[in-house]
Queue: 4 jobs
Job 1
Amino acid sequence: MLGGAMMAFISAIGIIRLPDVFTRSHAGTKSSTLAVLLTLMGAFIYFAANQGFYSVRLLLGIAFVFLTAPVAGHVIIRAAYRANVKMADTTVEDELKDVMDKVREEAKKERSESGEVIIEDEKVSDKEHS
Amino acid sequence: MFDTVMIIALSALSIALVLLFIRIIIGPSTQDRILALDAIGVLLVGFIGILMILQDTSVFSDIVLVLTILGFVGTLTLSKFLERGVVIDRDD
């Protein structure tokens, strides 16, 4: 349990210190998930050893946190990438950008071949990210 | 002895909570704030785990489940709103 709490502390420091959203989520999701897993496992072991009471609800909670916390992090970061949140200045690689540009170009070509009017899809980049 | 360890753990969690609140206040983008709120929701589950041990009762274990589910749904809703502009899609 102390390990879990320390892990949460480290995770919060990471969330404060790291330069952009993506690295922050890297700190936030993984280590705080591990923190809660350790803490709940400590509570489970405590009740099992002290009172002989095996709490199924705590085990369910552990499993649920383990399943949902990475998914939540993934969804937030996908929203951040779609909203064109700036990465840190030290970023050198952006492979997903090339792929997305290529997909957009192909869609445009297909549309122009089928005779449609090309309308630039600027909805994504217009979104405010203040 | 055991109580001391619990108090230390609670203090560490509280400091972490304060740091996350600072991130919510200064966060440059909305996604930063959602991320910090999600982390706070996960952290509160840890709080409840330690409080259960400290008070020697197991009646709070429902709250662990409810809090994880609510935090997950809230995070999904917010980020879907940021990504698509609507929360619930319509077919028409």
Job 2
Amino acid sequence: MILIGERINGMFKDIREAIQNKDPEPVRYWAKRQYEMCASYLDVNTGPTVEAADQPAVMEWLVKTAQEAAPLPCCIDSTNPDAIEAGLKVHKGKAMINSTTADQFKMDIYIPMAAKYNAAIIGLAMNEKGVPKSASDRIALAMEIVVNCDMHGVPMEDLYIDPLMLPCNVAQEHGVEVLETLRQIKTLADPAPRTTMGLSNSSQRCTNRHLINRTFLIMSMACGLDSAIADVDDEELLDAVAAANILLNKDIYCDSFLKTFRSK
Amino acid sequence: MGLTGLEIFKQLPKTNCKDCGQPTCLAFAMQLASGKASLDQCPHVSDAAKEALDSASAPPVALVKVGKGAKEVALGNETVLFRHDKRFEHPTGIAISVSDTDSDIPAKVAEINKLVFDRVGQIHSVNLVAVANASGDAAKFAEAAKAVQDNTEFPLVLISEDPAAMEKALEVAGDNNPLICGANASNLEAMVELAKKYDAPVVIKGADLNELADLVQKAGYKKLFLDSGAREVNKVLADQTQIRRQALKKFRPFGYPTITFADNPDPIQAVVDAGVYIAKYAGIVVLNTADPADVLPLITLRLNIYTDPQKPIAVESKLYEVGNPGPNAPVFVTTNFSLTYFCVQGDIEAGRIDAYILPVDTDGISVLTGWAAGKFTPEKITEMVNETGIADKVSHKKLIIPGGVAVLSGKLQELSGWEVLVGPRESAGIPSFIKQRWNA
């Protein structure tokens, strides 16, 4: 399971203020903290309060600051292609682009960008019409992304399809469709594209968020989820992932599997 | 294995004409991948595309047969790089070569026929006799092929790169589906013609992997064995690995079994080389030696490598002796799961105890599993005690059972009429148990 730490995001107050004050400390803190908590990527997002024109510079600063503090690649998270490219330019190692939808005009921007910078890319199984309800509609959009990546020579191992989980209090019927989508994505190509999801979405404005997040993560792993953007500062989540890795025969069992998982 | 949507889409005409009833070619590809549509619904798909899609659904390594009848050898149909992922399907065929310059071919073949060994209660043998055209003479080659064929039931591998010599030999041996070895860049057409004429499998040899792939595509024939041309063991290992790896990724030209040659003049080196080839995907390995001492370890290795890792390995259920047991020796009861049996046997041997072991047939499962599954019962133990005639070998009437199934002792004692001693739970405790408790 590739865990993408969600915390360096301008939606959070401390990061928002850090961006406003050009104070690198909170970014550094969360880069290090998430690195220690088993993150493989750091999601970096300027948040919506930064003006569009300033987003490239802020993204550049976030990527540099985060990578100076922790030896991890970034998952460059923005709806602004200039901000993403600014982040890619200063990024060290193999970045991840978060994200493109299945709209052709977006794929035409982001997929060549992934090819140019040899970055991985997250493809959302949705388009301008919104998030489809059924698994088969999600799969059809995922296939569009697969074909476009293949055309631009982005290898399937670098494509992370996100079937888009919605909050379970208001869109409860989507959960089973997402799980079915995860199963079917593996049949789209050989080698199969990878899968990811914005895990915390599943529990927006719900009670017992951590419980909902980790339960859905484990169910999704059983359906073939390879990666998740998640709160890695959640020990119980990490324990559950470690246990799921054992039960899915991804890690070899040992009595100290919780510890071994964290020392990787 | 089903095709993926992407593989299908790449072969479609991409006209988005909707003649198939789907809004786009991509949507049609998805329907095909999920089995909800069939390819003939598209009027515009080319024959080349049809063939590509057909062959993509074929198994990654074709099944190719050599010989006819009871001794026929089938190779290929492999699906994994590592046996623990699933299992290796068709054990490497072992061929022993005879030269057409040998003075007494029938005598040499008689030696090969004797390379039959009993391993864990089963009979295992070499599979093929290779005839090499060392003389360069066509008539001599045909004569040798005849001499070999008349003296063995094993299928033949005919080794000559001269089409004229091969033609002569096939006139003699062609009806028995021999392996033609083989075609290369200079004789490809003639050799493949001969193979087609006799409907026999043929080896394609390339100077390297690139040439091999080219030649396979040029051959236009499907009963093939592959030879990358490499002869040094490190190079063969690399090529064998590439061929299997690419075949599993559905690179069609490498989707055939391979042939390798372990012909190092030093017999020990040849055996070690052949061991590498057996472990690393060789369809056939050709040896020059017919010495049973060279062949037995390879037969054993092949047996081990090609066992199914998902099935428990069982030892034969019969009376075993450890050391030189006399009439006073203790009798241990266990199950025929090989891990269990060898634990017990090893601990008895390490304790320098002369003893008898009775591994009851539990379909190869352990003592506690066998007990829970009703396969390790007082009835079955009694039956085995009676059938093996252990009573005639010892002067006492005492059985030692594993401590884990102590509850069986009463019933077993009643049924068998033997006194039942409950041993330690772990076989490591056997030596001290014997010291303290055994006085027959």
Job 3
Amino acid sequence: MALFSQTSLHGFQALLWKCRMLSPISGCPQLFAVSFSIPSREKFNCFSFMTSSSAALPVGPKGAGVVPSKKRSEIDYEEKAWDKKAKEVSEGKPHSSSSVTAPKKELLTHALLKHQFTSVQPPEKPLQAEEWNRLREGFQSPEVFEEVMLNSMVKHNSPIDVAKSLLTYVAKSYGDIEYKLLVKYLVLCVQQRQASEILDVHDIMKGRFKILESGAYSLIIRGLSNSDQWRMALTILEEVKKITIPSRTHYESCIKAASRHQEMNLAFELYHEMLANNLVPTLDVLQAFFDFSRGMKGAELQKELFGVLLYLRDNQLYPHKTFMQSIKLWFESIPEGNWRGHLTNIKESGQCPVCNHQLEDSSLTEEEYNNLREKIIRDVIHGTDTFRKTSPQEFEAFQKFVENRLPFDIVIDGLNVSHINAKKMQCENLFNAVNYLAKKNTRLLVLGRKHMLINSSNWKRKIMEEMQTKAHFFFAENISEDDAFLLYATLRSGKHCKFVTRDFLRDHKACLSDSPTRHLFRKWQRGCQIAFSPSAEGKHIHFLPALRYDCVVQTTGDTWHIPYKDFFEEKYSYQVPRKWLCIQQK
Amino acid sequence: MQSANMLLKKIVRSSVLPFAAQHGVKKDLFPLSRTLNLSLCMKQDNSCSPSEKLDLDAWKKVMKSGLQEVNETVSECKEPATLAAARETLEMWRLAGKSVPENITEEQLKTFIECTSKSAQKKYLRYLHLKELHKKNDKRKMEEKRERRLEAQEQASETGVTKKNSFICLWANSMDKVCNWRAAQSMVFGQPLVFDMSFEKDMSLREVTNTVRQIVLSESTNRRSTDPFHIHFCNFKDNSLYHKEFIKHYRGAWDKLLITVTDQCYTEVFPKEKLIYLTADSPKVMKTFDHNKIYIVGSMVDRNIKTGVSLARAKRLGLETAALPLEKYLLWNTGAKNLTLDQMMHILLTLKDTGDWKKALEFVPKRKYCGFVNKPVHELKKTLSLINTLKLGKRQEEVREQFAKNYSKKQT
């Protein structure tokens, strides 16, 4: 199979164009079925295969690309949407999709329901049975007519009576209504907050089926909790409990409903039940607590809400901006509380500029330290097989090496640092970094691999030798992981020791078995990692000092400091927010 | 509870009227439409009369009247409560249109209950569902085939032509014999190929079944080749999962297979210096196929790629390792560089017979590469970037970076 290459994009497109026009081209062994858009015909993008599997489709003698049938049928639908101009082109295209296997068909029907029939317009008024029948007859695939119709009703938010008339038609003609349709009808009712209808459908379902599945339950609960009948949602939650553990969305709706009606005790009861079931509450739920208990009195309630804040602390969660605002407003609304909140940035030293309070230190306790070291040796270095990252002999040699030269102040990931400036030799980069860090009379350890010792264009022996007078070096095998050694050496040296690497150490964090240890690891990493970046002109390296203070929700009793994110979206686990909410009691 | 429901219903019923009234008011907000299609509106007004209103809730009556009939179909309660409950849940999911198999055995139900998370349950059910669909299709196709064959036979009997042939039709049988002779020969003189069966604890049950299926495929490929390997299964424990799966596949033929199965390690069977462990993580790249060496293939499927597991085995035993020169010969596009065991088998057999890398690497899945490297790298770069600019959803930089990584000057 030869690679077909065409120097200019234009020629390539022209060729594709020809192939599409089904003129057989000899000497064209390959056709890349890749999507493209031809400027003159913007509509023409039928080749939009998203998969790479069709990167090269052989062109048969007939000249038609052998398109996977599933895709072809998708194209067929698109074709219907084309305008007439493009239609001329597709004339010669085979329209058979008979070779589609059933699983694909199955998947296809879903796809159909999703995007092909979205253009179906639901009627605006309730129809009589014969009118529905006529519509159904005129529909492309009558067997999914009702489903499609209800789907589009949900989409267009049709009046509920229209859906009722459809259900009546179905019930009259078949004597029964499928569960699927009832659920879709429920969606419509929830959308329009028809509490009474929801209850009716629930009764019917209960009578008709022994149990319901979680999808229907969550719809019913959500629908009811948004209405005046929210207490019914609680009874239904009890029903769910008989069958399975309710999901967090079930709890969420109920908790929100209870908070909305100022039943804080009930809401917190549900919240604790949820935590006991190992469900993770969404930030929405937590925010609801603060929103709805604004201005309410009660020591018990305060304790609970402080508990929520401590939950954020324990799980290293950061509220987003609106949530932070809710917290601030709640604090300020406590009667006779005299709390004041300010938004601020914390100084490098870890001091809050508003209340001059020194934030918690980022260093770990002795116990945590030892615990983390044990876990790292067990999970990260050894893991399932010591040979995966190193070998027992090598690790032992390294341990001996470290014990004999303790303590280090800074441990450097040599290879990582050496790549900082691509224009320079790798050993030069490393040399600059070592020089810069060694100025301050610190004990350095540089970790590398054995290939650094071989004289090559990137690793000049002379420079390497000069470096070795300024720092201790340890060279691991070329197929060993040097990061694991970096962690070990740093942890072994004690609290003051920092390490230098641009790596986020995500893969090592993932090796750790349980989430408390992971949180510990991140905390330690924040406090010990010196990141660096090349300066603008690339002459030297900027080192960013490690964080001195710990970035979690924290309190001293009369002050609270809460870090928050600007947006709701998930940030990376190694990044910490820079903005803080400082709350103090006058 | 019941009485409360009744009360609620009454309230609901009474709230229908104001709702209808509102509806009427809304209609009056659009006098334009009324004038436009007056005749329709007249009908519409009729349909909004209270008698029609009741008609809208007719489906509820139908559903409630159908209750008695439905409740008669009570499932047989032979199973313990948990299983029955699970069965019911599945039935409801199926009705809700999720991917759930229609029929499920007790064993599968137990597996389903033992799933640790909801997503695991979903995946397992989807897998069963697809399996069921495939089975149905196969059945359907078989029946169609049979009908076609019968028709053809009828037509043939009508024409009444019988061909004369000097061979009796025993093809499959005689082919088997030939293959077995060759395999027997390889047992004595053939080059050994080792499958390392020590990865069981690194795999889930599903991965083990996949592994065994791949090995069965490779074994049959090997048997049909002109010059088969002498296959060894080393570190093979009796009554292990592997063993059970093999029995499932081969049934009675397991004991008649012309391969060597041993619980010994390959280092005990062969001299160490002759062994080469094939693994994608190896830093060394295979240049030529050596007929005097013994290659080891780790029989492992890692759906979530476990880097360095087989390399660790080789390191532990101090064996030489090698990786296929995929980067050297193929313009790699996407996907992991670990290949399935049957692909490995095809490649090794082709290398053994011809020594032609290009021919051998035809067996690498086409989706994973864009073509063979037969030009200077910079030209390939152009083509690749062209392909990727044309392709949607591929970010330029990403591709370039990958290319740079693959084809940078190899550092010694």
Job 4
Amino acid sequence: MANFVNLEVFSNYQKYIDNEQEIRENIRIKVREIEQFVKEATIQLQAIHSDLSKIDSACQAARKQIASCAGVYKQLSEIIPHGQYYRYSDHWTYITQRLVFLIAMVVYLEAGFLVKRETVAEMLGLQVSHTQGFHLDIEDYLMGILQMASELSRFATNSVTMGDYDRPLNISHFMANLNSGFRLLNLKNDGLRKRFDALKYDVKKIEEVVYDISIRGLRNETPQPTAENAVSNETTSAEAKSD
Amino acid sequence: MSQNSRSRHNNRRNQQKHKSDRDTNYGEELNPVVKVFQEYALELDDKHDRYERIVKLSRDITIEAKRIIFLLHTIDGRKNNRSKVLEEAEQRLTKVIEVNFKSIALELTGQDPYQYRCSYSPGLQEFIEAYSFMEYYKNGADEMSGTMSDWMVLQQKMQYERDDKLNTIKDDSQKSIDSPNEVDIENDIKTVPQKFEFIVDPTEYILGIADLTGELMRRCINSLGSGETDVCLETCKVLQQLYSGYISLNVQRSRELSRKIYTMRQSVLKAENVCYNVKVRGGEAAKWGAVFENKMNDDLDEGFY
């Protein structure tokens, strides 16, 4: 009984875990590369909050950065052994969510609809189903979409400030669709659920912006920087802040 | 029975969902967002349901493993019941492998096992604890120089073959030992639906063995109560060896393991203290020392102090 303990088990496990650490180290390097591209793209997209005329160029610049990520994802997928995606996925879930957010934002700004999961996967060179290989997790996609909702509510207030009164209505309609879509999901009590709970505040904020411009009859009018507009802008942003 | 009520519940939930779909479809018949989200909902539901099913299976394994451990604790040198208890424990453990783990493996075929790791991890760890505890007894019973089996041995035991008839289990562990090509077949398990396995993750194994030390400590204390002081010394030795094995591991950022190693240290200290008391005071007095925290008993301590 005394020689029950097999110390070889521990040395074998040490080998196993060392191997895992090495893979994790390689993943971290790749994820850092993606982070750099994401950062650039995020900075480019900030332009939309200060200058509406820059939207197209900002989207193009962001697209360029996003396209660069696909190559890194390919290298990342080569590091991960087959069928072990979820063993290491915690390294890249956050950054993937961020990328989904950026792509969704760009597609909305360019075309005005919600980007599909398939399209996001295609842009990043990922698969849709885990059986096909390195894929885009559905929860990451949904998290990214929810992040976009917060950004859009910020964009709605800013576009009013910049004199575009039609855009908030557009965004509001889009968000209502998104909200009804999310309510079809049976969410577990997890991170996604928590993030979804925040969606109603974003929807509320946009509805208030729409309300503000509606009661002042500002919709469907050509933007004219009058004294009245300036006042309404102030109240809108003040209310938005107090949210 | 419980399976039925569960699926009924699911149906009800789906019906509700479909109803709400119809409600929204009145206004937005062609809303593309809603359309894609219906697909996402199905996918998420499938994932959550599978997760819950595995949690249930895992809970059954945990309960059975705990009972087997309890059974093993009834082994007593005075009663000579070792071989009988061991036989029963081994039978029940084999049953867990062939029924419960097979069901989990079935749920996980074609899935990424790491995705559902949290759902089956408690059951697996408890099972490993029970299994290694059984092996520990077996090792002493046969007077062999056998050691604890590692995760590869368990992995070998958890190979299954799909069978059309329900409840008939084919264990091809024999086959896997015979044919050296088994490893190649294992790697292609995703493409061949006939064979499947339950993947024993080495980390889960190491965590399960860490729990074993708690049982060894209990055995050490129990045998003090029954007067088998040689068992105390022997379990203490095993504990020390396991502990030195664990502290030799260099694992980064594993909170679960470091917590277990901390607890293990407490167990080792406790067992060492028992051995110390046995040595200084003799078996009988140490028993009272451990139970009543050195409370003096005039009748019993005579001749030992």
